[in-house]
Amino acid sequence: SSCEHKTNFKKSKEVCLSYIQDAMLQKQWKRAAEFLTFYIESLEKDFSTEYMGPSEIIWRIGTEILCHHSHSSMKEFNSFIEQMKTLGVKRYLKVCLEHAFHLLCNGLIDEAYQNLSLAESWRFGEQTAIQDKEMKLIQAYRGLLDYYNWSKQKTILLEHGQDGFEDLSVEQEMHSCFRKAAVNLKEIIKIPGVWDLFVKCYVDLLEFYGDHNEARQVLNEYAYNSKFPANPNAHVYLYQFLKRHGESKKSLVSVLKILHDIVPSHELMIDFNTMLQKSKKRKKRRLGLEVIFAALDYAGWKENVKAWSCLARQVKQIVISEKHLDWIKQEWNSRKDWWPAFHFSRYLAKRNWQENESLSYEKALVAGILLGKDCRYFKYVSHQGCKAQVKRFRILKKFVHKHNPVYLRISG
């Protein structure tokens, strides 16, 4: 019966798809291709009137298999993609975009550009308006390739100077690429979203032609417009731009403060801490201590010599002056239960000493202040340093022993 046929077809389709999935997960691309062939054939033989919507499944799975299959060629991939473009107008632009990505991954830049240009000229009644966002993506990626060509022409021009007819033609080509890239890149970054690469390229174009005000406006909009998702990179790009153009430390600190709130483990926290420590304002120096403590809460910073050096220097200054010991105490109270095992175990003391003497020195100073002269990390490193007759470790040992009462005050 018709009902029984539909039930059996649905079951067989689901089983076949599960076999394809299993083969793909095990990277058995030949086996996956065979099952996909069976799946397509079964769809062709199906006489039920129910719409099964298989085209996107075939496109997604087929693309993945052809990207990894050992006997797949670019010719076969192109042929498959062209067939996929005809399966449904709703997915036409998405397929075109994926085709361009695949061509780019294989170094076929001119072919990718040509495909994006053809897709940009595509029109299909109301679907054109419905797929407005996909069309903007097509235009944006074509803008990226225009930027790439602009960058190549710029390199040629800078390497060979600006003499002669040939250089004039290069300069004209370069300006042509600039105009086309700028138009498309400017459009895409107006839409709320994460457009890091597009923003960087557009700002590079603007900076090269001296339009610094426009570049600053673009970066400010990208970082501070509430319609855009929170994005650490937006603040990084703004900071780098301001730094390149010699902006005031106040502006730089303002940007890095927001970055710290979003990603306290970001690598720029070293720069942030350094700027704060140089400030004459007590509030900023206090924030600097908070910033470096927060960064060292993360495993990726455990062996960062610069970070430990920043913390050691500030802690040492506070201990010597005996001012603001409460700053250290406040930071340490929330960490004293887990930092000793996380940073200052005997195992880490041995490893750090063997691998990086400078790291072990900075950490030993911090450990001696925070945990006292009986701390296992400090005792091991200072003993090894003195045994190796390294002068600074003898000085370190004396310093920690002299200021051991500070540990008692910090620990409460």
UniProtKB/TrEMBL annotation:
CC per GO annotation: RNA polymerase I transcription regulator complex
GO terms, biological process: transcription by RNA polymerase I
Segments passing through the bilayer: none
InterPro entries recorded: SL1/TIF-IB_Component, TAF1A, TPR-like_helical_dom_sf
Stored PANTHER family: TATA BOX-BINDING PROTEIN ASSOCIATED FACTOR RNA POLYMERASE I SUBUNIT A, TATA BOX-BINDING PROTEIN-ASSOCIATED FACTOR RNA POLYMERASE I SUBUNIT A
Record-given protein name: TAF1A polymerase
Species name: Scopus umbretta
